[in-house]
Amino acid sequence: MNISHLRTKLIRAVNEHESFTAQPVVQLSQELDMYILEFQKNTIRKEVRKS
User: What confidence tens digit (pLDDT) does each residue in 2-49 have?
Assistant: First the structure.
């Protein structure tokens, strides 16, 4: 799964549950946070290697 796909799933879940605190929404949000964090770490690593 990628960030864009998870973001779309999160938006759909919020609309479906009409809540930011519903368990499926929170779970998807946390999963998306982890993917974004990993992406940022990898981006920083690549920049450090270039230096």
Answer: 999 999 999 999 999 999 999 999 999 999 999 999 999 999 999 999
Distance between CA atoms of residues 44 and 4, nearest Å: 20
Confidence band, pLDDT 50/70/90 cuts, at residue 51: confident
DSSP string of 1-51? Answer: --HHHHHHHHHHHHHHHT-SSSHHHHHHHHHHHHHHHHHHHHHHHHHHHH-
CA distance 11 to 6: 9
Tokens of 37: 């964090």
The answer to whether the beta carbons of residues 20 and 28 sit under 8 Å apart is: no
